[in-house]
Amino acid sequence: MRLSDKSTTIEAAIAGIADGATVMVGGFGVPGTPFALIQELRRQGQKDLTLIKNDANEAGMGIDHLIAGGQVRKLIVTHIGLNPHAVARMNNAEIEVEFCAQGILAERIRAGGAGLQAILTDIGVDTDLAQGKQVVEMNGRRLLVETALRADVALIHAARADPFGNLAYAATARNFNVAMAMAAARVIAEAETLGPLGTLSAEAVETPGAFVDHVVALGALSEEYGIVRR
Amino acid sequence: MRLSDKSTTIEAAIAGIADGATVMVGGFGVPGTPFALIQELRRQGQKDLTLIKNDANEAGMGIDHLIAGGQVRKLIVTHIGLNPHAVARMNNAEIEVEFCAQGILAERIRAGGAGLQAILTDIGVDTDLAQGKQVVEMNGRRLLVETALRADVALIHAARADPFGNLAYAATARNFNVAMAMAAARVIAEAETLGPLGTLSAEAVETPGAFVDHVVALGALSEEYGIVRR
Amino acid sequence: MSDARSRMVARAAREIRPGMVVNLGIGLPTKVVNHLPADFPVCLHSENGLTGIGPTLPDETADRNLIDAGGAYVSTIPGSAFFDSVVSFSLVRSGRLDLTLLGAFEVAGNGDLANWKIPGKFSPGAGGAIELAQKARRVVVMTTHVDRKGNPKLLAACSLPLTARGCVVRIYTDMAVVDITEAGFALCELAEGVSAADVRAATGAPIAIPDTAIPTF
Amino acid sequence: MSDARSRMVARAAREIRPGMVVNLGIGLPTKVVNHLPADFPVCLHSENGLTGIGPTLPDETADRNLIDAGGAYVSTIPGSAFFDSVVSFSLVRSGRLDLTLLGAFEVAGNGDLANWKIPGKFSPGAGGAIELAQKARRVVVMTTHVDRKGNPKLLAACSLPLTARGCVVRIYTDMAVVDITEAGFALCELAEGVSAADVRAATGAPIAIPDTAIPTF
User: Fold this and answer.
1) How confident is the model at residue A230 (pLDDT cuts 50, 70, 90)?
2) How many domains does chain D fold into?
3) What is the domain partition of chain B in residue ranges?
4) Which of A155, B210, C141, D126 matches a 20 to 30 Å C-alpha distance to C38?
């Protein structure tokens, strides 16, 4: 037995995304954001997208290109305060924005990747974020039903990968990538280094390749991946 | 800033367990079973325990010592077929046994460790395992409420640790240890090697020490840890 | 292993298509790997936390920390990955398992499977069977056609507690390959030396027999 | 930073006890680390996936993949651990965070906290604030005593959307240290040069003033 080869070109990987797709995008700030996959999605121009991401990057970076390009119908996020352009589009009702508590967004994505239908939690039960959510009583406590999130496609940034799609991440670039890499029908990972099978020891793998559909090797990293000088 | 030292003796660590405690025990078969912590619990003799574990080990091994010693009131497990002694005790109503689907036991423990109250799942909805469980309708589907499990104490086996309680595991010894190490009020880890802070790189840590209360260094491993010759 | 069983195992191995992620149940299903070519592209999953199961090792060279879900000492191959039980069943429940081959006590013509409990006799717990049966994209059973007493295991309805409802799509036995269709059992192939009438007699429910020539294995 | 603010930060740093796991909110709370001795045993948590936050680094030596939740380039210390957002908030929600220091728009005498939304003006999303406020074992606020217009931020009831109900137990301001008790606000300490009457005038709800001498910071 041997493991199959899922490496492909960035053009082919992104071409599988249709108009109207729900797309999870890894990253928290710069670390872990798959800037190259996002740029290719910008180039190919798919429209009417729902993006699930922790944040909206900053104006002129990452998914802001997709927002500026009019490709985004809806964002499901935890915080967009670093992107005044996205805030303005939200305030002008040009994009719909659904906010989640940060760990609950992570859990909803994880629940999708774990094949669960929902989680029950007391987080946010006293806040605006509870509005419109199903409530379940358990042992006399009111709990919110937070439904699982799955996506048509997840865009993942890994530090290292092998052709089967086993992934490992750098430092705080894990963030939402780990959960998202399990929660989509089609998982596309870009990797800073893509080595042969065995590059990653079985112990070093953080996302097993069995969850991943396509692996794309990155060449030289664009400026977006670098230090943000303020 | 520096991180605190949680290393202690096996006697002191186990002495914190009270009669009547609920105790999670890592392992799936031999790999990952904390045999030394179990032996110390056998020696100290705490009674009326509820054990949460994947399996009941085999007759004469691991938690079977606690069952044979009359220390166990109840097991919450997925499969005890390799321990005919435990099956006999169950059939004679000498211990109570609650069975879970294996991945649902893992998820219930994980939910406890994640501070969730429950998960909603369709797993087992058509089976005996659904009996007595709360049902929630969501989008017209009947789902089981599988409640989160937390324990007073979790007994964890790690391959490597540092004094802050950062842990790493070997091969298939991860199994239930990773989730259990997050799901108890008092988490006790035994480690085959315990090195100074920095022994484990930040990337190599699989259980962050912030979840762990006590770390015990193992000396020479007992025969129970070895290859099972059949 | 009897010759008929060996041929059943060899035939079942052809269920596995290149690139699949597959979980092989404990017992007979595990043996299908012996019938795959050395360079066959497949990812075997073990629910205790391994993708990319390599060859079974003798005690002398075994790693005490590396077993499959049946307790056999296995090994890794290039690209293997270790993970915990939570991730392992996330893979199963989220639909990433293309195929599982499972044993059975009873299979019904509507695809119901019973393979974990015989009330009053055998109730060691379901382990991972419920999630495998309920969530693998394709659930295939391998079993002797009748039990040790000669009673049929393919039935109109299961009498034992279910593992999962309507999950089985195909059954490999020592007598036949049987599909489960909207209309119930349907004979597909016959073991060498077995007739359609033999299969019908050994099956506890109606079984459709094709008019055309039936392939043998 | 004004002298009063500096002293507030220094005073708040004494909230941190040896061995605690602590999350410091973005802004002023982050600055309390500058007041801890170099060998002080504490584990700082950043919700984007790090325990054991080390010193902030200049751009020249920063690791592009290593930031805190506020986007600052930080470093590791011996024993640091990286993890994903799921594990990070598991730590928060399961009660492993001993203390969080948070900013506030409004705090009520019953411990209610509002710090994430000003309808019509500021609604960028709550990020991790709700879970920190609702689940840390001890939730302490650091804030100026009044807003830029001079309006009190310590109120009888919050007018803004809540972050969490009844979570705050203590407030450090540039004028005072205020506890939240069953009876509401209670003055504990005064900033140098500030009188109890000043604090009462700047507080938008009844505040208990002790009869005895009030320590200053």
Assistant:
1) confident
2) 1
3) 10-115+150-214
4) C141
B124 min Cα distance to partner chain C (Å): 6
- For residue C3, pLDDT beyond 90: no
For the domain that residue C51 is a member of, what is the CATH number?
A: 3.40.1080.10
The residue range of the domain holding C38 is 3-208
- Which pair of tokens denotes residue D73? 């380039």
Return all residues near B132 (Cβ < 8 A) that are at least 6 apart. Answer: none
Tokens 């109890």 correspond to: D196
Q: How many CB atoms lie within 10 A of CB C156?
A: 15
Mean pLDDT, all residues of chain C: 96
- Return the closest-CA partner of residue C186 out of C169, C162, C164: C169
- 8 A C-beta contact, residue B134 and residue B156: no
Other CB atoms within a 10 A radius of the CB of residue B128 amount to 16
Would the ipTM clear 0.95, i.e. be above it?
Answer: yes
Residues of A in contact with D88 (CB under 8 A): 103, 106
Cβ-contact A64, A77 below 8 angstroms: no
Which whole number is the average pLDDT over C182-194? Answer: 97
Instruction: Please answer whether residues C154 and C145 qualify as being in contact, where contact means their C-beta atoms are separated by less than 8 angstroms.
Output: yes
| Cβ atoms within 10 Å, residue B125 | 18
- Out of B106, B228, B229, name the one closest to residue C86 (CB): B106
Is residue C17, in this structure, part of any structural domain at all? Answer: yes
Can you give the pLDDT at residue C27?
Answer: 87
Q: Across the interface, which of D45, D77, D82 has its CB nearest the CB of B210?
A: D45
Which residues of chain B are modeled with pLDDT < 50?
none
Residue D138's CB is within 10 A of a number of other CB atoms, namely 17
C-alpha closest to that of B180 among B168, B171, B189, B172: B189
For A10-115+150-214, CATH gives: 3.40.1080.10
Percent of chain B with pLDDT over 90: 98
Question: In chain C, what's the furthest Cα-to-Cα distance?
Answer: 54
H/E element, D6: helix D3-13
> Which amino acid makes up residue D53?
I
- CA–CA dist C93, C87 (Å, integer): 10
CA–CA gap between residue D200 and residue A33 (Å, rounded) = 48
Residue D107 clears pLDDT 80, i.e. is over it: yes
| Any A CB within 8 A of B111 CB | yes
pLDDT at position B102 is 98
Copy the structure tokens of residue D182: 């069953």
Q: Are B62 and B155 in contact (CB under 8 A)?
A: no
Give the tens place of pLDDT for each residue, C69-107. Answer: 999 999 999 999 999 999 999 999 999 999 999 999 999
D121 contact partners, CB below 8 Å, separation of at least 6: none
Question: D32: part of which helix (H) or strand (E)?
Answer: none
CA distances in angstroms from D111 to B5, B182, D186, listed in the order given: 34, 29, 12
In a domain, D110, yes or no: yes
B107-130: pLDDT as tens digits: 999 999 999 999 999 999 999 999
Interchain contact, B197 vs D51, CB within 8 Å:
no
Q: Per the CB < 8 Å rule, is B166 touching D41?
A: no
Task: With respect to residue C216, please indicate whether it lies within any of the assigned structural domains.
Answer: no
Q: Report the amino acid identity of residue A36.
A: A
Alpha-carbon distance of D51 to D22, in angstroms, equals 9
Question: Residue D3's pLDDT band (boundaries 50, 70, 90)?
Answer: confident
Write down the catalytic residue from D15, D47, D106, D131. D47
Interface residue B141 vs chain A (CB under 8 A): yes
Q: Is residue A7 less than 8 Å (CB to CB) from chain D?
A: no
Residue D67 maps to a domain: yes
Q: How far is CA D196 from CA B10, B197, C146, D174, D187, in A?
A: 53, 47, 89, 13, 8
Cα separations in angstroms, C26 against A122, C9, C68, C104: 40, 13, 9, 11
Euclidean distance between CA atoms B75 and B94, whole angstroms? 11
pTM, whole model, 2 decimals? Answer: 0.98
Give the strand pairing for B151-161 and B167-168: antiparallel
